[in-house]
Amino acid sequence: MTLWLLGLCLMLFALGGISLDLWRAFSERRSLAATADAAALAGASAIDEEQYRSSGAIALVPGLAESRARDHIAHQLDRASLRGVAVHADTSAVTVVVRGSVGFTLLGVLVPHDRFDVQVTATATPRRSG
User: Fold this and answer.
1) What predicted TM-score, i.e. pTM, was given to this entire model?
2) Regarding beta strands 94-103 and 82-89, do their DSSP bridges make them parallel or antiparallel, or are they unpaired?
């Protein structure tokens, strides 16, 4: 009976660890996705105004779009799990790739790896309002 209860306790500990760590990973992924989405939208606001006024065509200034996306990420308050950012822009879209990692809590005792890597990609294109 004692061995059975000990095994049950260990099983509950493992399931609790999996549940807690998966919840933290999903929560962190959602936070990184919001950061990537907001940065891509900030970059998509870098419209070439001169070209728009002369021809009505909407195009991005790639250097300015990348700069705005990086600045937006740099000013985020929650950057604890942020491990890397890649931004690419051309005249039609901005793509932001955000990488982060989440540390294991209870599973750190059972699993030799102590971190879980998360990567999120967001793309935004400028368009007319209305």
Assistant:
1) 0.80
2) antiparallel
